[in-house]
Amino acid sequence: MDEPAPGGAVPPLREEIDRLDGEIVRLVTARVDSAASLADARLQAGGTRAVLKDELDVVARFGALGHEGHRLALVLLALSRNRSMGSAGRRGAS
């Protein structure tokens, strides 16, 4: 349970965090979908599903958030990798 803050700031702040969490989930889902489409396009063109340099660039970009940013990048890459390896039926599942 949230402790009340002076001036009753907790509920509006909680609502803002909940709103941001929803936006983050939406953005991660969009990123995973885009990465799966990119992986499919690469495979259809005779390439590999992923390009190591691109993945390292993602990790470096998230490094702006510190060590935990690197971990977050690896989680995003894993989500994308797992999604792109799934079947078309799995892609449509929620």
TrEMBL record:
Q: Which Gene3D superfamilies match?
A: Chorismate mutase (1.20.59.10)
Q: Which GO terms describe its biological process?
A: chorismate metabolic process
Task: Please give the InterPro entries that the UniProt record associates with this protein.
Answer: Chorismate_II_sf, Chorismate_mutase_highGC-bac, CM_dom_sf
Please name the SUPFAM superfamilies in this protein's record: Chorismate mutase II
Q: Which NCBIfam families match?
A: CM_M_hiGC-arch
Q: What is this protein called?
A: Chorismate mutase domain-containing protein
Lineage, uppermost ranks: Bacteria, Bacillati, Actinomycetota, Actinomycetes, Pseudonocardiales
